[in-house]
Amino acid sequence: MSSRKAEIMVGLFVVLTLAAGLLLALKVVNQGMSSGTDTYTLYAKFDNIGGLKARSAVKVGGVTVGRVDSISLDPDGYTPVVELKIYQEYNKFPETSSVSILTSGLLGEQYVGFQPGFSIDGIADLAEGDYISDTKSALVLEDLIGQFLFSKND
Amino acid sequence: MQWLASIGRNTIDTVGSFGRAFLMLMGAIIAKPQFVKNTPLTIKQIYVVGVQSLLIIVVSGLFIGMVMALQGYTILVDYGAEGSLGPMVALSLLRELGPVVTALLFAGRAGSALTAEIGLMKATEQLSSLEMMAVDPLRRVVAPRLWAGIISMPMLALIFSAVGILGGHLVGVDWLGVDVGSYWSIMQSSVDWSEDVVNGIIKTIVFAFVITWIAIFKGYDAVPTSEGISKATTETVVFSSLAVLGLDFILTALMFGIE
Questions:
Q1: Residue B75 maps to a domain
Q2: Structural domain tally of chain B?
Q3: Residue A51 in contact with partner chain B when CB distance is under 8 A
Q4: pTM, rounded to two decimals
Q5: Which of B117, B164, B239, B246 has the fewest CB neighbours in a 10 Å radius?
């Protein structure tokens, strides 16, 4: 076997690997928060975040407009604070917007549903670092069952 | 007394072989780099070790992806969750099956060949003749094969995973009728580049290093008879498979285990 042939075959091998890597990078992996996208930060306090995790999606009408960056507990009041990174291209949400924690499908992952509010004169847009005041917590199955049983006893 | 002596002898032998393996590794990799002289040798070994393993890797990747899609579909369809077929196939391939199955196939296909080749070089005294010509066999024979193994196996594992995902697409989407959009989009939303793909690549690099090291050392350390070479080849496959499976558990626990 000539060394030329070996070189050609190894070159082909490398090209094939790059193709496989490209397939994984472009079609399999989520593009998500690539560092290139500009984002701004909003905060929201919930009573209960259920199964929400960092990197969960933030959606407006099913369209992903951002991701959950981190979740922490507010030391005063012990309520969970969720830090949302919203893509800069969606920066016109009015202050009256509300967020709720929803579940995609019956057993699906939880995400933050973002409901843009009405905007009239005198209502500013949400800006970097703002808190969203109108929040609805995640539905916890045990609480629902408890309420159901409780109301049945009446 | 006899059994006590045999325990002692076995321990000394084992520790001694670990020491020789380490010395061989150091002699092979710690030296002044000579890219001009060693690159052609390494490329030839990548051809032997990597390119010639390509067929078995592609075929088994395709079939493993297809089988996983088939098995996963029959379970997931009961819950109406067949849309999750994509992430199931992709995550199990990228995290586990890609690295591990590639490593086991690589140990059987390339590791055994490396051991037999170097063992026969030793038996026919080619290594001693190299030394007589003042050519260091560690640098001339061992180092190119070691690097070729470490370079080729992660590439093979990447190809394995990609082909497996395409195989899962073939069965899941084209045959069983999972929606093509949900196959790819749910896969995209649950597979993470650094969490899944990079961790899988780290695994394969560790496996590649261990397999190639064991294979070359077993050949280099073989008793130079036909019986000794056959024993060394068997041991290569057995030891490197066990090492891969054991290390896989440790690496998985470190990477995906406790948060």
A1: yes
A2: 1
A3: no
A4: 0.74
A5: B246
